[in-house]
Amino acid sequence: MRRLTFLIAAAVAMTLFHFVPAKAQEMVFDPASRTWVKYYMTQDAAAAIAKRKYKRREVSYRGAEIPGTIIVDTEDRSLTYVLEHGRAMKYGIGVGREGFTWSGREKITRKAKWPGWTPPQEMRVREAKAGRKIPAYMPGGEDNPLGARALYLGNTIYRIHGTNEDWSIGRQVSSGCIRMFNDDVIDLYERVKVGAPVIVR
User: Fold this and answer.
1) Do strands 149-153 and 159-161 pair parallel, antiparallel, or not at all (unpaired)?
2) Is the pTM of this model over 0.70?
3) Residue 73: CA count within 13 A, CB half-sphere
4) Which of 7, 50, 53, 81 is 20 to 30 A (C-alpha) from 75?
5) Which residues are catalytic?
């Protein structure tokens, strides 16, 4: 019983997950066997952990970027929106999986509420090869992968958007887009203006 309690506590404390269908898994250290073992949890449990760990908060900011700037830290799994007077809002994010990460500077060129989703052709081809068929277009709504809001980045295929998969926040799961909790992307949407600079690191 003590070992099980330890494993559960360790699972909550760990921050790096790898998603597998229907369940989330992570490696935790078992002191009894002195080995790393896989601990599985449901997506609901993983979502609850993500909501606690990546809760939106106002923080101090001492960087050089001007108010209104969005800073995406893919390593830290955070998005910072710079406010006035040395303050900023910090949000948890999900980022591109291995092979789909990127960095650079862009601007917000469009904002959309409950956006429709048009997957890039290369994504549809890639997913079809893996045996997964995705539609050419999906109208906006609660089941849409883009969630409640989307902020479009320059002329790229990337967006900062919401998600209906809360468990994915804090993970490397997307095809390069930046995911946020729906409540958080709504909050950011109300703050940010078209033309705002975006820095992805």
Assistant:
1) antiparallel
2) yes
3) 10
4) 7
5) 161, 177
